[in-house]
Amino acid sequence: MTIKRVWRDDSINTCIACKMCHLFAPRVFKVFDKMIVVPGLDYTLYEQEIKEAAENCPVQIIKFEK
Predict the structure, then answer these.
(1) 43-65 burial: b if 16+ Cβ within 10 Å, else e
(2) What total of structural domains would you count in the chain?
(3) Which residue range(s) make up the domain with 33?
(4) Which of 2, 43, 49, 60 has the maximal Cβ count within 10 Å?
């Protein structure tokens, strides 16, 4: 399966800018005041890193679509 889309879902919780996502996938996630997903990437190249970032996000706001 390939990841086609990655986003920050603030519908339940909000980003706390802990930078955990950047630690796991620095090419995919950038953190300033809040995390942003770098647009235009081929997310299939970073699938494992994206999954680990989502699993380790303390507020569980990283979502992805296969």
Answers:
(1) beebbebbebbbeebebebbebe
(2) 1
(3) 5-65
(4) 43
